[in-house]
Amino acid sequence: MSSSLEASSFITNLLPVLAQRGTTVKFLRKAQELHGLILTSTPTASKSPYAFNNILSMYVRCGSLSDARKVFDCMPQRNVVTYNALVSAHSSSPRLGVFCFQLLTRMQEERLTPNASTFTSLLKASSTIKNWILGCMIHAQCLKFNYLMNVHVQTSLLGMYSNCGDLVHANKVFSYMVQADSFAWDSLIFGHIGNGDIIECFQLFKTMLRTAVIPTHFTFSMLLNACSRLRDYRTGKLLHAQLILSGVCADLPLHNALLDMYCNCGDVITALDVFKKIDNPDSVSWNSMISGYAENRDGESAMRMFVQFAQRSLSPPDGYTFASIISATCAFQAEYYGKPLHAQVEKAGLGSNVYIVSTLLTLYFNNNEADSAQKIFSSVSEKDIVLWTDMIVGHCRIGDTDGSLRLFHGMFQNGLEIDKFTLSAILNTCAEGATLRQGEMVHCLVMKKGCGSEMSICGNLVDMYAKNGDLKSSKVVFSLTNKPDLKCWNAMLGGYGYHGQPEHAFGTFNEIINNGLEPDEVTFLSLLTSCSHCGLFIKAKHLWNCMKEKGIKPGPKHYSCMIALLSRAGLLEEAEEFIIEELPVGDYHHLKAWRILLSYCVRYGDLIVGIRASRHVLDLDATDSATNILVSNFYAAVGRWDGVREMRRKIKETVIEKDPGFSWLEGMKNKTCVFSSLDLSHPQSGIMEAMLHGLLETMTHSEVGEFDLTGQ
């Protein structure tokens, strides 16, 4: 009898120690064995609430909530500690958080009085499931039982209101706190970030520093993520400096937050420095660097980082990794990187991953391989709205307006709910394809779905009407937009550019600055396009320098626009110099740039620049049909008939056929007429040809009279 009591006492005293140490799933088996030993060997201990509470806590720490609930249900007697352990265990689960309030009801039925720990866990559960009403009810209970001055309860109340979006009550709770610690500050800052009040969260951070409260890792991570979302590079750099000054030793999540901020703000050089300081980067670290290079259009560096990841990381690339690296290589020909990566995706069993499929569609459409994109799209059994939208965007990118519209109608036939992203995509299709009537019908659908106030859609509507020649409707849509964002301003600016109104375009640019908005690459592209249409090459040069001063990295369209502008003004040598000095070495778009220059050499009959340009295009791609035909046209324009014969011989040897270019025109009764060059099949072709000759003559006289050779 004595030995049995001694064993019971020993196990009872040992339980708290084991409950603290058993914190992993690996310990679960031993915990179950110990539980069985207690039940069979120590009947006295097995009836003790103290022993049961420790066993329950042991299961909770091992992550086995089902075993913990079994222990709870079998207990002959429960106390507040028992309930607190189980409530706390379920408070962090969005799926099981409601169970905490069922436990509160049972607790009250057993006439047990909740304490501060109970309310802290219940408030955490309200925060997790974002149930403001339940949170308010627990707040009332805290008041009833006089726990409102408890620091832990106050912090939990603050977290609950912040997470539920009630910043008014969150600020009130915060103001009542005698001495707010870093956790309280973090809760309030997190609430403001979650509600999109980014400016206020930085003001709170400044106040936090003034009150001598030391920021935590979580504080810096939250604020860095906010800078990343806003692409606020300056504030992000200041935060990094404050992190170093505060002496906080950055852990892996904080390093990842720094990586994400620098990559999103375009500073991949500093991001790489941060990356090198991480001893054991995880997949998030690698993915941040790969996506950072992708967003900054540095596919080569992204590919090198991907290879290093595959060689050094213990974990294999996941869906996000493949999506990022495929996105990074979309600018290259699919044979080089895209198709081998696609093969790896299939080998890894990730071929049905929606994010990867989306980037693969972009890859193949960028390479004008619509058939390959269609095969991938058809292979997906459950196509969501994202993939349908990607297909619409892809067909629009390759100039297949009809294909985009068919897909849009197919979405309706398949019963898919159209969202704002799909509407934006189809409006862009109507803009690029010059299908005004279809655009007007989509506008009606926008109003019907109540998306008229969506800023992105407003921008697309302005753009659609402008590109369809209806600048008046563009102005109306823009004037009805409340506080237009940069995209909407850019669309209006671009509209003036399309319609040859540079004075209005530059006036809109000044309004963008006056409204406190920072111009982006799209703003400058619209201005450059406006200058290009009107021959304002001096202003275009000024804009180019201004763009570089602001740290905006030019894209392929910026380069093409400047080269076309200089070439159109007859400044062919300057355009050539621009390609050599400005365009990045090894850029995939060099071929397009030299083609533009060569086409204007054909127009102006410039033999010297044209010969150099033709050498470049032939060196870059001698088998391309468009390249060979363009070079042949150049030789013909400058009277080099030996060169013409050589190019025609090459064309015949390689059996190159130039794809015919098709145009379309929206006619009456929603009919679309499709025609090609020298197409005389239309019954009224004679009348149309006479009208075209008249228009051409009018335009020629207009250009001679109005073109400004000074570029001012």
Automatic annotation (TrEMBL):
Alphabetical list of InterPro entries matching this protein: E_motif, PPR_At4g14850-like_plant, PPR_rpt, TPR-like_helical_dom_sf
Record carries keyword Repeat: yes
PPR repeat ranges per the UniProt record: 48-82, 181-215, 282-316, 384-418, 485-519, 520-554
GO molecular function: RNA binding
This protein's record includes keyword Repeat: yes
Coiled-coil portions: none
Pfam families cross-referenced by the UniProt entry: E_motif, PPR, PPR_2, PPR_3
Lineage: superkingdom: Eukaryota
Keywords: Repeat
Annotated signal sequence range: none
PROSITE patterns reported for this sequence: PPR
Biological process according to GO: plant organ development; RNA modification
Name of this protein: Pentatricopeptide repeat-containing protein
Source species of the chain: Cuscuta europaea
